[in-house]
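[scheduler] slot 2 assigned
[scheduler] job type: sequence-to-structure, two independent chains
[scheduler] chain ordering preserved from manifest
[runner] begin chain α
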Amino acid sequence: MAGIPVYSGSREHSLANYYYQALYIPSEGVISKVYFVGDVTAKEILDWYKSSLAGYEVVAEYGITTISTPEGSLEWGAILFKKDREGVGIWALSGTPTKVDGKQGAVYCVVVGDIEKLISEKTITTPTSEGLPYSDQVSGEEPIQRYPGSVMFSYRRE
């Protein structure tokens, strides 16, 4: 991970496996490190990396999205950069579930590897606040009125 800066005040941390699966963070054929930093948000981490990775081109950006979990709300976002064949991905999370030792902050994962390992079909279709992956979109009339931005898991017409 030489040459990839680390946000000031960060310390190495861990990230539960289900986050790798849910957010499509690549784990095979890449090098990754997870960090925690207090008193910042996922957005601040991502903005900092956008301004700090000189010479890298942004190839994909996933805006901040809020997820509700049993532990509380979680905000996450990601940015993928490339320089020649090298890819760098930053996935950042903040919110109640990311408290460490009682301190609020952000957990972020820096992934480095071949750009093809970072950009996969699953990564490209990661849900964002702008919409669902194509495979999850449907057309037609809504069966019931819903809160804007909510997702209906099932509906049974009686």
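[runner] end chain α
[runner] begin chain β
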Amino acid sequence: MTKPAKRGDIDDTTAPLIEHLTELRSRLMYSILAFTVAMIAAFTVAGPIFNFLAAPIARLLVENGQQPQLIFTGLQQGFMTQVRISMFGGFVLAFPVIAYQLWRFVAPGLYRQEKNAFLPFLLASPILFIIGGSFAFYVVLPIAFDFFLSFQQFGGTDLADEAAAAVGAAPDSEVGIQFLGTINEYLGLTMKFIIAFGLCFQ
């Protein structure tokens, strides 16, 4: 037979459903507000954030003797990239506030020993996410990008090749295969790596 919970082990609040929904709404509003403010703040520095995120590929391109540049193929992609960067930065900045609001909503329904066990994980979660994301950005991404760029093929066309091509003969040089990455593709891959490793380190 299980013993009844002692008074003080769990909060004495026995709020009805409507009060729980009101509390949930309040916590969601605080989280959305924090994310919105952080997103606006990140939008003002979206350029430096992009340059920071593009540093791994830019460094490798320079080492290969190529121009460190990315392109966009749609008229709106430049703006949408700024928005994506702002959302990414806003989530990172607002994550502590969102985690705190989640804790404030869940904590009243936990026993004291459950709170003591759960709180250290909640406090360590942002730190572990940053460690995982940093590992992906500084270690995994440079190795992965270097591997992907190794499939480039720098074929030159000299005058002899052009003359051979003019008469229908096969040129001696290889066909050039060069990386022309778009900002959408690059940022999407980079953010996926950072988020995936950040979550794996939780």
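[runner] end chain β
[qc] chain β: The chain has one domain: 17-200.
[scheduler] slot 2 released
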